[in-house]
Amino acid sequence: MKNYWLMNVRLEKGFKRDGNRITGTETEIVHLEIEEGKIKSISKELPNNLVEKYDAEHQLLLPSLREMHIHIDKTFYSGPWKACTPITKGIFTRLEEEKELLPKLLPTAQQRAENMIDMLIRNGHTHIRTHCNVDPVIGLKNLEATMRALENYKDAITYDVVAFPQHGLLRSDSVELVREAMKNGATLVGGVDPATVDRHIERSLSTVFDIAAEHNAGIDLHLHDPDTLGAFTFSRLADYTKQANMQGRVTISHGIALGDLEGDVLTSTLADLRESRIDVTTTIPINRPTIPVAKIDQAGIEVSLGHDSITDHWSPFGTGNTIRKLATLAERFKYIDEYSLNRLLKYATGGITPLNEQGERAWPQIGDTASMILVNASCTAEAIARRADIKAVFFKGQEIKNKLPQMQ
Question: What are 311's strand-pairing partners?
């Protein structure tokens, strides 16, 4: 592992204020010594006779990003253009399509997954949580392709793989397949809509938690059910989490109902999730009520971002660019001031931000792992609002973006 000095880095050091009002972000140019993948020192002066050095040219340094909800195993990305077919039976339209589509995609599944990993790295991600179909149609073949793809990038990213019974854990009789997936590389137990897909909330949740206990694994559930049905599912999920002593190991993906609930029902639901330390991942959808990210965060619940579908049979959209997604979040909720824009970064980094809420430097610190990005911006707020370009990506101190083959 190469040791070197990262020169002329722009770091945030505090907020500019006019009385109590934050008007901007102060930065400074410093030099970071990188040793064995970690930050060894931060200095305003460079030692003489440097042998190994990298000039950041005053670019802004930010922590690298985490893609927390993606499906790299089934995608049209890097292949021919194909729009989606109309939905006539809701989610079940797509499930019927998959019975024919997934076997056809399998010969190129690994290559397309690797192309998507390349794209995510270029967009600043050094951690990926991917959901991988496990069902009677494709068995464990998508999982095998996904694991091969991820293993080829073990020196560039960390990752989690969710064993995802897309067609319903109970509905498609995939219980034993999910168990096998957990023995063959999957790290989290998945599920989808215990009510509308599996048609049995209690038995579905009980089975998910049984499998998780068998493999000492966490859980990540797709929950799309709206309104009070979604709220009831959240409540039961919270109960199961506490009964299993799995606080802090359960994720709700999407959580669509959180965008529908209001008043005391929302407050009560958030209290349940906080008490069970269940976190939430969202794609910031704009085709339906967006979940109230700020309220969820203020309730003490961790929120993270993901892209879900990128150019597949579910959606023709998606860029894999999380900085742009943060900008969409800012526009959706009218976060236009310096402080609000600055605080959004934590949803993309696992909570890591250069400045804490008081404006004191929280990152980087000596001893931190040097997984980071260089961005063409003067500060975090500008990077998000102006959808700044990423100039370099580092994983444990080593630059990885420029080592990737360029996509055509």
Answer: none
Of 312, 317, 320, 322, which is closest to residue 142 (Cα–Cα)? 312
312-356 pLDDT, tens digit per residue, is 877 888 899 999 999 999 999 999 999 999 999 999 999 999 999
In the three-class reduction of DSSP (H, G, I as helix; E, B as strand; rest coil), residue 29 is classed as strand
Provide the H-helix boundaries in 78-174.
91-105, 109-122, 141-151
pLDDT at 92: 79
The 10 Å CB-count burial string (b at 16+, else e) for 30-58 is: bbbbbeebbbeebeeeeeeeeeeebebee
**Sign of dihedral through CA atoms 323, 349, 398, 54?**
positive
**Alpha-carbon dihedral 176, 182, 187, 189, rounded to 10 degrees:** 10
Residue for token pair 């067609």: 167
| CA of residue 266 relative to chain centroid, distance | 24
pTM: 0.94
DSSP state of 78: T
The H-assigned helical ranges of 319-388 are 322-332, 338-343, 346-349, 380-385
CA gap 4, 36 in Å, rounded: 10
For Cα atoms 51, 54, 58, give the angle at the middle one, nearest 5 degrees: 135
Contact 223, 252 (CB under 8 A): yes
Listed residue (314, 26, 311, 289) closest to 192, CA to CA: 314
If phi > 0 it is left, if psi is from -120 to 50 it is alpha, else beta; for residue 263 that is: left
H or E element at residue 281: strand 279-282
- Reported as half-sphere exposure (CB side, CA atoms, 13 A), residue 177 has a value of 28
Identify the band that residue 28 occupies on the pLDDT scale cut at 50, 70 and 90. Answer: very high
Task: Output phi, psi for 32, to 5 deg.
Answer: -110, 130
